[in-house]
Design a protein that fits this description.
about 500 residues, alpha+beta, Outer membrane efflux proteins (OEP), 2 domains, 6-stranded antiparallel beta sheet, two-stranded parallel sheet, 8 strands, about 15% strand, disordered N terminus
Length: about 500
Amino acid sequence: MKNLIIRYWTNVSENMGKLWIWALIFLLSAGFSTVSAQQKVADESGTFFLKDMQEIVLLNHPVIKQAGLLSKGAQARVIQSLGNFDPAIMASFSRKLFGGTEYYNHWNSELKVPLWLAGADLKVGYDRNVGVYNNPETKTSNTGLSGIGLSLPLGQGFLIDARRSTLRQAKIMVGYAEAEKVAQINTVWLTAIKDYWTWYFKAQQHQFMMEGVFLAEKRFKALREQVILGDKPPIDSVEASITVQDRRVQLQKAEVELNNSRLLLSNHLWNSEGEPMELPTKAKPENDWKNLQITNIPQLDSLVLVAAEVHPQVLKMRSEQAKLGVEEQYRRELLKPKLNLKGSFLAGRRDFGYVPDGYDFRLANYKVGIDFSFPLFLREERGKLREVRIQQAEVAYGLQQTGREIQTGVVTAFNELKAYQGQLELQTRNLASQQILVKGESQKFELGESNLFLINTRETKLIDMQIKRAEFFSDFQKAIAEVYYRAGKKIVY
C-alpha cells in the first residue's frame, strides 16, 4: 500500500512538473509575441518616427477604415440606381377548361429594356390568346402575335426622368462621400499628430528633469564630502539635499505625465489584424529638432488657394449644389404635360420560319397609342420646385460663409504658426545664453567665488528654459499640422 501511494504522488509530481513547463513555455511565447509586436512600433534604436506612426495610423486605424466605407456605400447606391435601367422580363399564363370546352388560353410575355436616351423603353413581346370565349380585340391565331416597339415620352420625362435623376444624384454623392472620407481621415491624423508631439514634449521634459536630478545628486555628494572634511558648512549640504528632493518630486510628476501621454498616443496604434498595439515603454520620439524645425512650413497664399478649391467642407457643399441642380432640373421637367407615344410593329411569327408577307413585320402591321395628362394648377410641382430653389439658396449662402470661415481659419492658424516659430527661435537664443551663464557660474562655484544658491538658481532656470523650448517646439509642430488641417490637406512626413 505504501508503494502504491509513493508511485501515485510520483506520477502527480511528474504531471505537475509537465504542466508548469508548458505554462512557462506559453508565458514565454506570449512575452515574445508582445515584444515582437512592440518591435514593429519602434526601430532598433527605440525611436518611433512620426512617418512610421503615419503608416500605422493610415493603414490600420478603425475610424479610417470606417471612413473608407463611405465611398463604398456611395458606389453601392450608384449600382442600386443603375437597377432602374435593368432589362426586365414579364410573363403570365392563364387557362380555363370546363365541360370539354376551352374557354381561354392566355400567354402574355414581354421584355422591357429601359433606354437612357429620351427616357424611352424598348419592348419586345409575344402574346397568344386563344379559346372559345375571348375578347375579339385581343384574340390571336394559334401561332400567336409578336411585337417590337418603343414607349417614348414626348413631354414630361423627355429630357430627364426619375431614374436618370436618381442615377445622376447618386454619382454626385460619390464625390460627397470622398470629401467626407478625407475630412474624417484629416481629423484622426491631426489628433494623432498632436498626441505625438505632446508625447515628445513630455519625453523631453522627463529627460531634462532626469538630468537635473543627476546634477543635483552629484553636487550633493560632492558637498557632503566637503562638509565631512570641513571645507563647507553643513547648511550647504542641507540646501543641496532639499534641491535633490524637490527635483525628484518634479521628476516623478514628469514621469506620470510621460506615461499618460504614451498611453494616449497608443490609442491610435492598431495592427493589421485590428488588434490594439501599445507603445513600448522604452520607445522614444524623434529628436532631430533642428531638421524638423525647417521642414513642412507651408506658404500662406498657396494654402488659401488650396483651401478654397479642395477643402472637404467646400467639396461637400459643392456636391450638394450639384445634387440640387439635378433635382431642380427634374422638378422643372415635371411642370410639362405628360405625352407618351407607344408603338409596336406586329407579326404573326414566333420563329424564323416562313410567314406570309401580310402577317410579317411591315409598316401595315402596327399598334400605336398616345397617353396625355396634365394637372391644371400644378400646385404640387410648383411647390416642390420652390422648395428645391430655397435649398439651393441656403447651400449657396452657406458656401459663402464656409469659404470665409475656412480662409479665416487658415490665416489664423498660420499666424499662430509664425508666432510659435518666432518664440522658438528667441527661446533657442536665450537658452544658449543661459547655458553660458550656468557654465560660468559652475566654474566660479568650483573656485569658491560663488555659492550654492546661485548655481541652483541658474541651473533650475536652465532646466525650465530647456523644457519651455521643447514646449514651443511641440506647439510649433502642432501648429504646422493645424494649418494643413484648416486648409483641408493632410500633412505628410
